[in-house]
Every structure is written in C-alpha cells, then in structure tokens.
C-alpha cells in the first residue's frame, strides 16, 4: 500500500472529510518531513511509512475537537505536529506553530512556503516569552511538557473562554491531579489512531 493510500484509509477511519487537494498537501508535508529529517533530526521516527500513522494520522485526531475556535497555537511544534496537519485539514483556522529550536522552525518555514499554507505562522521563541497581539481560542501540544507545566507556561496566551487541548499517550492520571488549582480537566478522551497500536488520549483543560 502506498503512503497516500494508507493516509486516505486512515482519514476515512477517523471520519474526517478532506478534499483530494488536502490529502495531497498532507502527502507533500510527509515527503518534506522525511527529506529534512535526514539532516535536521526533526523526529525519531525515521521511516516515511511509519510517519503516516505516527505523525499525520496521530495529529489529525485533534481535528474533530477544534470546533468553536478561530486561532490555534501549537506549542513545542517540533517538526510541525499537530499544527501543520491541523492547518491543512482546517484552512479556516489561523494556526501558529511555535518552537524554540531554530533548525526546526527553519524547516517549518520552508514547509509553509512550499505547501503555500497561508493560514500558518511560524514563531521561533520560548513560549513564556511569546507575546502575540491576539490570544488563542485553542492551545495544543503533542510532546511539549507535563500538563501542569504546559498550562502554566501558556496561560498568558489563552483567550477568554479558550481551552487547552493536550495530546497524550497513556491516561495521564498524575498529570491531571497536578493541574493548577484554577484549572480543571473537563474531558479526557481515548483516541484511536489508525495503524498505531498504542494508547492515545486527548485532555481538554479549561479555567475554573
């Protein structure tokens, strides 16, 4: 099975409605990620075939939970997950991908240019130093920090009525218990990633 065929099958299993053009963009992003990864060490997953489930489909599990917002921040984006796939799937969203690593944001800028992602902005900064003009309705991260630290470091970036959407592996009991007292986990969803035999959870955190 080709990478695109595997991607299409996974998208169908996730129940996400994407056009052929969006799928082609995801394939282009995958190719860029695999190519740059040889030099820039963007991800520990080296095989392009494994990147389909580990990175693209895993990132796309966020998409059904992005309703109600217009601005998304992906903190510690690394090679662009989940921000780039989310931006491709939801071109109506304004997405900022943020990372402190200059090599990684160099790749992200090149990907945005080559894929013509007009709804994506790349920021090189430590998150606690980032001061945008407009806050974010949704803030996500895939492998940035434990929940408590993630929330504390990004609190100044959340818009009134906004939410944090943290992508985790196994059910993060201890991390949820250590959330700041003025926040709470309003929802913890078990997430199935097509082609990936591993636990995944999405934790929705809101201010009290």
TrEMBL record:
Subcellular localization, as worded in the UniProt entry: Cytoplasm
Annotated Gene Ontology cellular component terms: cytosol
EC number annotated for this UniProt entry: 2.1.1.170
Substrates-to-products reaction catalysed: guanosine(527) in 16S rRNA + S-adenosyl-L-methionine = N(7)-methylguanosine(527) in 16S rRNA + S-adenosyl-L-homocysteine
Gene Ontology molecular function: any one: rRNA (guanine-N7-)-methyltransferase activity
Keywords for the protein's UniProt record, in alphabetical order: Cytoplasm, Methyltransferase, rRNA processing, S-adenosyl-L-methionine, Transferase
One Pfam family matching this protein: GidB
Transmembrane stretches, start-end: none
Keyword Metal-binding in annotation: no
EC class of the enzyme, as a word: transferase
Principal subcellular localisation of the protein: cytoplasm
UniProt key word Manganese: no
Binding site for S-adenosyl-L-methionine: 76, 81, 127-128, 142
Stated family: Belongs to the methyltransferase superfamily. RNA methyltransferase RsmG family.
Functional description taken from the UniProt entry: Specifically methylates the N7 position of guanine in position 527 of 16S rRNA.
Listed PANTHER family: S-ADENOSYL-L-METHIONINE-DEPENDENT METHYLTRANSFERASES SUPERFAMILY PROTEIN (PTHR31760)
Protein name: Ribosomal RNA small subunit methyltransferase G
The species this protein was found in: Paludibacterium paludis
